[in-house]
């Protein structure tokens, strides 16, 4: 379980992805969480995609061991405005980042959403601190 803000640092790149691609307008921009993942995969360097994927997979592995509300609170603390109700959408995002085909989703990267994972993130509080 993520116990403190220091542990949250383990998910910096995933959190930045959430901020940049899963913000308030992500459904208008990408239609789905998978569309956002695909857009990121198309726009970001391969090493950034691999880093976000690794952090997402680690988060998913943890999320599958704790109550839903626990991981949902931590996901909210990480960034973005995405509120999945189950771990299924997290698995779908993993698939999109791995390059699985998207049915009906926009297939072009959004040039208005460049992601530089080297840019510093603003501080985030854990759910326990909120």
Short description:
The chain has helices spanning 5-8, 12-21, 26-30, 33-43, 46-63, 68-78, 88-98.
Q: Any overview of this molecule?
A:
With 130 residues, the chain is mainly alpha-helical. The chain is built from seven helices and no strands. The relative contact order is 0.25. The C terminus is likely disordered. It is 54% helix and 0% strand. The protein is globular and about 35 Å long.
Estimated radius of gyration: 14 Å
Structural class: mainly alpha
Please state roughly what percent of the residues sit in beta strands, choosing from under 5%, 5-15%, 15-25%, 25-35%, 35-45% or over 45%. Answer: under 5%
What is the overall silhouette? globular
N-C termini distance: 17 Å
Percent helix range? 40-55%
Total number of beta strands? 0
Number of helices, counting only DSSP H or I runs of 4 residues or more? 7
Order of helices and strands: HHHHHHH
Mean pLDDT, to the nearest integer, reads 80
Residue windows where pLDDT falls under 50 for at least 5 positions: 4-8, 104-114, 125-130
Largest sheet: none
List the helices and strands and how they pair.
Elements: H1 5-8, H2 12-21, H3 26-30, H4 33-43, H5 46-63, H6 68-78, H7 88-98
Helix pairs in contact: 2-5, 4-7, 5-7
List keywords for this structure.
single chain, 130 residues, mainly alpha, globular
């Amino acid at each position: 379980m993520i116990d403190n803000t220091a542990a949250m640092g383990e998910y910096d790149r995933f959190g930045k992805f959430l901020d940049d691609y899963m913000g308030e307008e992500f459904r208008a921009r990408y239609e789905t969480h998978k569309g956002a993942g695909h857009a990121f995969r198309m726009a970001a360097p391969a090493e950034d995609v691999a880093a976000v994927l690794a952090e997402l997979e680690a988060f998913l592995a943890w999320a599958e061991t704790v109550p839903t509300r626990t991981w949902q609170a931590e996901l909210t603390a990480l960034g973005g405005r995405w509120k999945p109700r189950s771990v299924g959408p997290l698995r779908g995002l993993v698939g999109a980042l791995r390059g699985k085909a998207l049915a009906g989703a926009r297939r072009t990267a959004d040039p208005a959403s460049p992601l530089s994972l080297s840019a510093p993130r603003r501080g985030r509080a854990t759910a326990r601190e909120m």
